[in-house]
């Protein structure tokens, strides 16, 4: 096997380096993957710029990357769902499999979760990476490696919609049209929402949302009056949304989610902002608007793959930039500047493992 | 107001007559409707041919019709959601509003339900008909009166899918491609199912299913071997369906639903066949395949309307025949002979109340 | 029928009067009740002291009282579940029966709800009062009129537990041991909770909680450190509660509910405090602790009655004071001073309608 | 460590032998247990008498036993929840931890489940037995080893009640008062059922049920008329049960569960009888009575332990017979003859590991 194992390693705040790393040795339940596509996520940029994200702090050099796809290069003795050469999407967490959370089907809450590029666990923006076989999902031929990588953010959107209980006929409000707001929009439409209104403070993002199927968009400005926004949401939707999603993390969007949602509805909090927020809880209590946070995803990768493979969801327009592994720093810089939506890093030459050229 | 109130009245088995009936007088919470479209359902034909259906027996002359739309002609004093001239879809049941079922949101199980054309309650295949205002749903301009009438069977399909818990990524089996199997297919796709396999013993119905979006079809014959069918279903779907629907009512399809469904999945029974069936229950118990019957619909009309109005579901191809009210007997005869899918009776001239001509 | 219809009428802030009122005339679906027991609730005192409570403002003289039981004196033509002389508990709300909330089984959220002693709707602290028959629940002989009145607060506790999903083996935290905290404790134990820890700032209330079956109590002081409290809760319970209830409405207890609850658990907010609260939402999001407010109750009266009638729940120790109707002002004064738990007003002589003397 | 590892080994139909077996060698995630109590279950007797049970066939000598408790003798390197000397209840299944069922919290449906004394997997009626540490639950001092063993059948009852959704105020019907019917009764009462009616064809079993808290009992005879039974059930309960449990497996009890349950309720099938049954499905469909089978338990051991440890459930009266390991054949013979309820085999001297003598 090749000895080259170049990877993008974060040493500390603003110190991201491309360097050789050891090729990992697999366990019986693992596969070795030759990486292909790795997207950049907001949290990656946050780690790079701040050396931490939420409770996670970078204390030792860590390989970046967790939105990824690759090709199976080697199989552990116990892996039966895959074979060498399989193109796979990688669900980036490895739970303990023994705790109460793992056994009740909520492994994403496992306290011993090892999650790619959440310190101290290495990620997969590197040539060779090992992973538990059961968290690798074989892609059908017609699904591209880019789409495989995009299953990660899509799974967040699906998890949000499943937690919110989105189903046929729902009227949905999504606050924030960044990558996460957009995948929430896609998932909500695919799960039957009949009207989705999405907001942002940037018109460019709303334009993408429109292209992706938003029924209504609302451009918000930082000094919009809260009561006005509630009224506008209700006007545009012809009523109250029964499910709202905060996909921005700002106090103002969390507040709007609580205020605008129909009595008896659900406000799903996806955004992760300040630790503390001042919110109009009493109204949510009196109107029984449930508040549900979401953390990543759990058992949603197969659903995301089924949605993409069946054509129910088209995630391709999310990718706005492409870079090679060697250009990773440049790629991160583009992501940092918030140009476009999703920046994709190609560890292998573009389309090397795609049956058709990836075009949006 | 016109004195003509011609209606299709069932006297007894095989004795359906067109005759004048009194124009009803409305209560405060009711509206008088000038009827427009009324579809024919399998149960209508059953009443006509047998004088009964399930526990319901025709003992006095009864106006037929329950899949219907109309235009508001007169308003009761307490009706606030409508105005004269509104085009509406009619949810055909009137529950008591006082019992435990009505108060827990399951009014379709209300023991005092008065349901159109379920004896002794009159239906709405007649010029003027009165109905509680809150069970009339105003149609947006772009939704046709035919679509309004089709919300009735569509609601059955949606109720079936909601009871089955259909959501994103589901793999679905529908047994029977009559009107009910087809609306179940439409609802399942709209609610996120990524693969739907539908079966029938008639190729013509499978062809319609294909047109409506079925991912796979399977032509079954009366002497198909059970084990073979299970295997074929799994082969076509690339695995077990996690939700199956019996939409035929035959013992063989109920059995197949139980046998083919994934462990931990759901078999929804929509079909209403013999009172007693011999079924492989032990396997369903040991594999925890839940069995859920469905009865009509409850709170699904607004969802059905949202789905049609938003374009998520296209029910128009279901209509294969059109007749005027005066041709009702001819229309019933066509329905009885099982030609086509849905026979639509026009109480008013076609497209009288549509903004665009109704074409499939 | 007697012409005496003395009632306790609130004119405005701090202006509660005993005076004659007209005997109401019943509708077909109503009964006339000769009132027996009426408890005093925190909100009653709040209206009396402040002329308002939440969004409800007293603008015209209003009869007080909503935790009540009575005896059927007269029957409307359509009432079939009752007969004259029946002893009943009164569920104090009258929803519209027509709106989306009423039809989906969430009538407590009906925007047209008429709720006893929520302005402008009159309550039932009066000799004769009329009410929809279906919201009156016949008491078995062995259930006292006092218990009938106590079904009201108990229903709040049951609704809270049903919203929280309390079931066998649950570990529960209740914050606040006022009447509402105590009924939540009772309901949680009856629904299978294996450990309940209840907190308060008053030892006297914790003593009552202990008597009612609390497994653990924790005396809190206004200057307790948040982190200490979280730790103490976990120590006492031997782990994290999976369901927490705020039954105080203070910012500090809402915060504690969010912080102490197990990942993936539920924090139920029953307390109604300030309109706005500063809370550590990000942690609840990342740990998927659901936040669910509750508003009164819905379909819980029959459950409350079943629990009391079967002996699963003993609400009798909650009553600490008794007064006659003529002593209503005195009774309100005792309630205002927060002495004891539940103050009961007897519109008829004590035990007039009980088979056994009411003793705690 | 002692070399004696006497166990009860089933060779084939009616050929159960006591003989030495090898002491197992533990894996890193396992513990070695010195067994204490092992109850006999109906399926054990079935295997002994028939060499098979359902799809499981004895093809090689197999150690019996799966309702058990023991003491930790040795710890695998990765086991952190236990220490040597801990008294534990043993959840007898070992799922794969990798499949879809394991990851969605339904590991009891894992197709690779290795379940004690389900061929070809050995059970634990033997001196030394090894088991995954996370499926061993430490017993508090006051919980006896007998109670530890009884968590197994209790977990079946709890699983049945959780699947049925038993909660406060429920009216419950249990058909069959064998060990499984009785634990279902215990679980239902502990989870809030206000009325439980239990039936059997043997008065002796109904007497035990009465002692365990049944509100009503009904003695059935093989020639009871179905319609009569339905009527009697409704009379005794003063209405329809909203949840019914078949705990016998007979066609007649499954039928009764479907017929007697309230519209919109649930019929839980626990009994495992003939592969095929003739049942009145159409009525269950039209009344939306859900049918849910159950298979063993999943994540219910901790709940069972919490219920027993908190005193909510008293399982002690279930044990009617005691034998030493050396008397295993005698014990099986008593179980076969259906005398008493639960036969307990003591691998160690009685009360060797109990703080208090075990007395019912
Ligand atoms: N809960 C989880 O598991 C999870 C997973 C991934 C991301 N996240 C969080 O989701 C959020 C969104 O992620 P992203 O990658 O899309 O981030 P992003 O920053 O690209 O997108 C946020 C969007 O919100 C918009 N916005 C800002 N203020 C707004 C306002 N007042 N009204 C409307 N829109 C406003 C921004 O313009 C931006 O387009 C972040 O807080 C992130 O931390 C959570
Ligand atoms: N539960 C409810 O509330 C509800 C409401 C409406 C209709 N229904 C019932 O749903 C069923 C379907 O209604 P419909 O109007 O579509 O009836 P239909 O008779 O038009 O359709 C049934 C279809 O099943 C097909 N079929 C027959 N045997 C089959 C087999 N072995 N395998 C596969 N397909 C087979 C038939 O060819 C036919 O196309 C009926 O039993 C009806 O009574 C129930
Ligand atoms: N959501 C609803 O439908 C509903 C219905 C009834 C009551 N309520 C609300 O429930 C709350 C409780 O009602 P109640 O009648 O029992 O009121 P209460 O005032 O008698 O009881 C509140 C209890 O909380 C205690 N408390 C105060 N601060 C505390 C702290 N920091 N930690 C622990 N305990 C503390 C008080 O000492 C008191 O015993 C009120 O806010 C009321 O408005 C809500
Ligand atoms: N689903 C599961 O995971 C699971 C687990 C354990 C046991 N089981 C099954 O549960 C059933 C009960 O187990 P058990 O150990 O209590 O068995 P059991 O044989 O001791 O008890 C069955 C009881 O039903 C009674 N009975 C028979 N006919 C009856 C009738 N017509 N009406 C009322 N009662 C009648 C019998 O007298 C007996 O008391 C068995 O079928 C067993 O296979 C299922
Ligand atoms: Zn874990
Ligand atoms: Zn009703
Ligand atoms: Zn209403
Ligand atoms: Zn498994």
From TrEMBL, chains A, B, C, D:
Gene3D superfamilies: Medium-chain alcohol dehydrogenases, catalytic domain, NAD(P)-binding Rossmann-like Domain
Full protein name: Sorbitol dehydrogenase
Superkingdom of this protein's organism: Eukaryota
Keyword Repeat appears in the UniProt entry: no
UniProt similarity note: Belongs to the zinc-containing alcohol dehydrogenase family.
PROSITE patterns, per the entry: ADH_ZINC
Keywords: Metal-binding, NAD, Oxidoreductase, Zinc
GO biological process, one term: sorbitol catabolic process
Cofactor: Zn(2+)
Molecular function, one GO term: zinc ion binding
Domain Enoyl reductase (ER): 12-345
SMART domains the UniProt entry points to: PKS_ER
